[in-house]
Amino acid sequence: MLSALRGVPRPLVLGSFALAVFQVVGTIGASRNQQAQHTLDALAIAIAVVGPLALMLLTLAPRAVIVFIAATIVVYLWRGYAYGPVFAGLAIAAAAVVARGHRLAAWLAMAGALLGFLAVHALVRDESWSWAWASGVAAWSLLVLLVGEVVRIRRERVVASRRARREADRRHANEERLQIARELHDVVAHHLSLINVQAGVALHIVDRRPEQARTALEAIKDASKDALVELRSLVGVLRDADDEAPRRPRGTLASLDDLVARSAHAGLTVNRSVEGRARPLSSAVKLAALRIVQEAVTNVVRHAGAQRAEIVLEYAPGSLVVVVEDDGRGMVAGREGGAGLAGMQERAEALGGSLEISAGAVGGVHVKAVLPTGGER
Fold first, then answer.
1. Listed residue (93, 72, 94) closest to 27, CA to CA
2. Per-residue pLDDT tens over the stretch 71-109
3. How far, in Å, CA of 115 to CA of 122, rounded?
4. Is residue 221 part of a domain?
5. How would you classify residue 196: left for phi > 0, otherwise alpha for psi between -120 and 50, otherwise beta?
6. Coil, helix or strand at residue 363
7. Packing angle between helix 131-205 and helix 88-99, nearest 10 degrees?
C-alpha cells in the first residue's frame, strides 16, 4: 500500500487529508444539530475518513475508488447518521473520475448511490416522501456529473491542442531539415561537379599544356572555396552559432554571373539573357531561381556532354520564368529520378509554381520553371 502511494502527487495527498478533517469536523457539527438522527459512532467517523483518503488512489484505480466511496455513502445513509459534508468526497470523486474519462463508472456509481439514498430514505427509515426533495437530490447528483463532463471536455481539448502543436512543430522541423538537405545537395553537387570536371581536364593536359592545367587548378580552387563558404553558412544554421555568418550575398540572381564564369572554366559556354522588365523579387523566389539554374547547369556539366547552354530569365506578369536549355545528348536513361531533379520540382512547388523538363529544340534538355512572384506559400 505504501509503495503504491509513493507515486501519488503530493497535492492530492494533502488535499485528501484536508478533506478528511473537514468531513469529520463537519459531520460532528451536523450531528449536534440533528438530534433525531443516529448518534455518531466509530463507523460514522471511519466512513468520513476513508472516503477522502481513498481519493489518493484516483490516479491508480479511479473506477474502484468511485465505487468504494459510493458504497460507504450508502452504508452511512443506511445507518441513519446525520446529513452533512460527508457527501463532499463522493461529489469530488465523481467529478474527478468523469474528468479522467471513466464516464460509465462514475455515472453508474452515482446512480447506485442515488437509488440507495432514495431506498434508504423511503423504505428503511420510513420517512416522508417528496418528489421535490427527490428531484433536488437527483439534480445535485446530475450537476456534479456535468461539472466532471465540462472538465473532461476541456482537458481533451487541451490535450488535442498540445498534440496538434507538437505535430505542427514536428512537421515544421521536418520541412526545415528537408530545406537544409536540399541546400546542401545543391551546393555540394554543383561545386563538386565543377571540381571533378576541372580535375579531369588538369590530369589530361598537365604534361602537354601545363599552362592550361594551371587554369584548371585555379578553377578548382575557386569552386572549392565557394563550396566551403556555403557549407559554413549551412553548418552555422544547424549549430545556431554565435559567430557571424559569411557576409557574401547568397541566394541572389547576381550569383548567376559567378555560375556562368565557373561553367566556362568547365568547358561549357553559357549565355545568360533577361526578357521583360526586371523588378524586385522576394528572397524565396530569387533563391529558388538560383538553385534551379544551378542544378540544371550541374546536370549539363555532369551528364549532357554539351558545348553550349542558354539561361533565360523572363519577368512575366505575376511570375518569373526560368529557362535552361543545352545542346547536349538529351535525357539520359536512369537519371530522370535523381535527387537534383526532385529538388528543383520541390522548390518550384513550394512557391506555388511548376517545373517542366522536356527535350530541347536543338537537342539536349529544356528545363522551364514558372515561379510566382508573390512569394513563398
1. 72
2. 888 888 888 787 778 888 888 888 888 888 888 888 888
3. 10
4. no
5. alpha
6. strand
7. 30
Assigned C-alpha cell, 142 = 446530475
Residues forming beta bridges with residue 270, ordered by sequence position: 309
CA proximity to 31, closest of 78, 86, 75, 71: 86
Q: What is the pLDDT of residues 25-58, one digit of tens each?
A: 888 887 787 766 777 788 888 888 888 888 888 8
The dihedral built from the CA positions of residue 118, 120, 122 and 128, taken in this order, carries a sign that is negative
- Structural domain including 274 reads 256-377
Contacts of 346 (CB under 8 A, 6+ apart): 178, 182
Torsion sign over Cα 86, 91, 97, 102: positive
Distance, in Å, from the CA atom of 76 to the CA atom of 80, rounded to the nearest integer, reads: 7
Residues 289 and 253: beta-carbon distance below 8 Å: yes
**Is 88 inside a domain boundary?**
yes
Residue recorded with cell 520553371: 369
Say how many domains are in the chain.
Answer: 2
d(CA 297, CA 201): 18
Q: Decide if 142 is inside a domain.
A: no
Closest CA to 38 of 161, 128, 125, 160: 125
Domain assignment of residue 195, yes or no: no
CATH number at residue 264: 3.30.565.10
Among candidate residues 64, 95, 129, the one where a domain is terminated: 129
Report the candidate in 40, 120, 127, 22 with the shortest Cα–Cα distance to residue 77.
Answer: 120
CB 351 within 8 A of CB 369: no
Q: Dihedral of CA 23/26/31/37: which sign?
A: negative
Contact 48, 86 (CB under 8 A): yes
Which 3 state secondary structure label does DSSP give 87? helix
Which of 27, 14, 161 shows the shortest CA–CA distance to 84? 27
C-alpha torsion 285→289→290→293, nearest 10:
170
pLDDT at position 259 is 75
| C-alpha cell of residue 33 | 444539530
Q: Which of 107, 129, 151 is the last residue of a domain?
A: 129
